[in-house]
Amino acid sequence: MTATENLRTVLPYLPGSVRHSLEQMSGENRSRIREVRLRSGRPAAVDLGGREYLLTPDGGTTVLPEAALTVSREDLARSLQAVCAYSVYSHEQELTQGYVTVRGGCRVGICGSVQRQGDRVQSLRQVGSMNFRIAGEYPGVAERAFGRMGGTRAGGILIAGNVGSGKTTFLRDLCRLLGNRCRTALVDERGEIAACVQGVPQCDVGLHTDVLDGYPREEGILTAVRVLTPAYVLCDEIGTQADAQALLHAAGCGVQLAATCHAGSFEELQRRSVIASLLDRGVFRHLVELSAAGAPENVRMLRS
Amino acid sequence: MKLLGLVCIVLAGALAGLAASGRLRREAGQCERLIGLVGEMESSIRYRGTPVQELLQSLAGTDFSFPGRISARMAPDMPLPVLWREAVAADAQVPACTRQVLCTLGETLGTTDTAGALAALALCREGLSQAARESRERYARQGRMFRALGLLGGAMAALLLL
Description:
- The complex is a heterodimer.
- By secondary structure, chain A is an alpha/beta fold.
- In chain A, 32% of the residues lie in helices and 29% in strands.
- Chain A has 2 domains: 3-133, Beta-Lactamase (2-Layer Sandwich), CATH 3.30.450; 143-301, P-loop containing nucleotide triphosphate hydrolases (Rossmann fold).
- In chain A, helix 9 (241-252) packs parallel to helix 11 (273-280).
- Chain A is globular and about 60 Å long.
- Chain B is elongated, with a radius of gyration of 21 Å.
- Chain B starts with a helix and ends with a helix.
- By secondary structure, chain B is an all-alpha fold.
- The longest helix of chain B is centred in the C-terminal third of the chain and has 48 residues, at 114-161.
- Chain B has one domain.
- Chain B has helices spanning 2-48, 52-58, 66-73, 80-90, 96-108, 114-161.
- Chains A and B meet through helix 4 of A and helix 6 of B.
């Protein structure tokens, strides 16, 4: 699905006034929307190509808060209900982690006042902000890098970039390319890569791809290795010790890995102990550095 | 011929009495079935965390049409309490004495965590049990009276026409 199509799938979840405004927005602006942000008692905002603007009632953008469309607490509560398909109890886990994925693979970030039990978040008491990230499927974004890395002989691939640099989009296309050529397992913890609906991926992730939808990352990786005998395992946003252990286990079993992680540069990656240990142990052969969405990527060979 | 007509009048009166009494009995039965339905919802939410739409879809084949009607119309931009209220009002099988209890459930179901949803269902079950108890008492009190009144009314009409 394109970003415009995904925006259309997100519209019903938004408060009526925001939906109406976005429907009136010019087609050009609409196609540039990356995020729609709702904040309780404050103006609704949209991210157009990396910059945040306030939304006016007639579909325009402004920087003046008094001219912008304000989102009420009730609007936000209704949106939360809609995002949870009127079943908040079946999304408790996601809500404590701060996101829910809706149809089309769009991730909705949610935060507010929470109830704590010790050090961990037990439940969301009151929603304060919601961020609708408009996912986009861009077939072909990974093709050039895939070719340069040697196709299915690329070995382990680490995709690094800052927030909003297009790591997930790149990984989705890489999954399509790998999945059309060899047996691939995709661990889609947040359901935003394959956007499965009743087990069927809504995005093209390749013919030979098995999707582990909603699995915790480390458990998904281990399950994939144990039961699916994949040539490649792909997962998004690694960074914990548990991830590293699962990836090392998979690599030890002869499975190639492709994963994304937050980092602005190779140097930044090396400063993160978990990632550095994976790099030291040679889990990844190639590093793809993404600077910004749509910008050309830099492919670096980490070992021959 | 005249005698046959009089017998028919008596029978019609008796049948009217039986129908009125049957309505009371059916109402008590429907209340019991609604309690069963809410019990199924409780189990599904407690053990499987089934989302509302899936839950109502699975209950679509029961005596009541409102679960199927709600699940068929559910959409992100359609508030559940509104759909719920409309569907309950349109379902002729739902006894009038239980409508308010069910509408209250529609206002809260799905808006809270599992503990809240189970509490709302337990409250609803309590309300339905109360309605079922009252229906049974009404049937015990008024059922026999309706049957007797029907028979007597028919007999009276027959006597008047004689």
